[in-house]
Predict the structure.
Amino acid sequence: MRLEQQSGDGGGRASWSGQFAFVLAAAASAIGLGNLWRFPYLAARYGGGVFIATYLALSLTLGVTLLITEIALGRRSRQSQLTAFRTLGYPRWGFLGVISTIIPMFILPYYNVIGGWVVKYFAAYAGMVFGGCSGLEDPQAFFDSFIAAPWDPFACMCVFTLVTCVVIVMGVKNGIEKSNMVMMPVLLFMAIGLAVYVAFLPGAGEGIRYYLVPDFSSCDNIGKVVLGAMGQMFYSLSLAMGIMITYGSYMRRCDSVPRAAVRIAVADTFVAVLSGFMIIPVVVLFAAKSGAGRAAIDAGPGLMFVTLPKVFASLGAAGPWLGLAFFVLVLFAAFTSAISMTEACVAAVCDFFRVGRNAAVAVICVWCVAVGSVSAFGYGRWSSFRPFGMPALDFFDSSMNVLTPVAALLICIFVGWAAGARTIVRELSASGPRFGAGRLYRFMVRWFAPLLLAAILASEVCRCLKIGGWSI
Ligand code: PHE
């Protein structure tokens, strides 16, 4: 694949080799821990089919609108999020670039810590399958002693961060595109394979019904379901973190932004729904067998690192293999998402300080290790450091849950009211056929999206004042 230099189209900026590579990269960013772990447990908590239907409706309306907006901003400015708004001729909105850069800069370090946890579980299952090692017989004890260990979480985070940085150093085409070409098909086939395996387990029908059939009694408050689905959509589509702006800045003018946005949203939602098929039936089966009842399904964030390993342990000889397959899948999903966030940070450093890529990667790598160590040690040696009474990782997670809707809201206000939706509509029609849904887009970005975003923001602020997000 050739590195295309688009003269007259942003100077020597790298670009994707085509529409497919772009959609794959954006989908790889979107498909992550949010799809594999957060979506299934939210669906189980908020009434199965009701949540799934709400999520589908939101991601195909609000999600696609925001994706189109961010990608078009990036492609028009040919800059990463930090400098995009100024480059478009709105220096007063430069602060929005700063906010959209701060968000991934602070999410990335703790995302890498969780990535490190996944590395640890992957290694533990690989050890069980290939080396006959054990350790995961009591998953709760394993998890508790691992996150509180003096060095383990830090070392695993460093491994995860380094691998991500190596991919980024290799560049947009040779690094990001090529690694996606390997990891994404593996991820998809494994997810489909595991979902099919689970569907054939005796008694799986009960769990599939639990997942799909709308249960209106467990969603007494429909507002909560909508807000839950919206927050999830946001996180899952990697919105408001500058990622889609940066990735859009590498997009070729001849490719269609709306078509790409719809494909990204569909791919992301497909994998989210598929993970429910993979996870919910086994957890329901386990809950019935072990008498754990609804608590097993409602385990929230602990589902992936405690409940699922318990499920695998109960499956006999197949358990370690399934655990290994599952954590390979999660590892790839986490890597591709971390890669996109690292790229957004690196691109911002390159565009702002006008330094080379390698120098920017070195800066981001050091940053991640330094800031990430606060979260990595947060359950162990530095557990006495509890900002607002929560472990460091929970604190970062909660603050980001508030900052992301703020950034998205400001982006909508910028596009809808300051720069004008016409700027984006013109960019969408820059090549190929005219974008026919200009009016709809204008309505979405001026009214629909900001009102929904304001609602998420209000609910997040209320939630954060009371509880932390990640407590396991
Ligand atoms: N979208 C990713 C997921 O679903 C998470 C993510 C958030 C990735 C922000 C990059 C940036 O897990």
In short: The CA atoms of residues 463 and 469 lie 9 Å apart. The chain is about 75% helix and 0% strand.
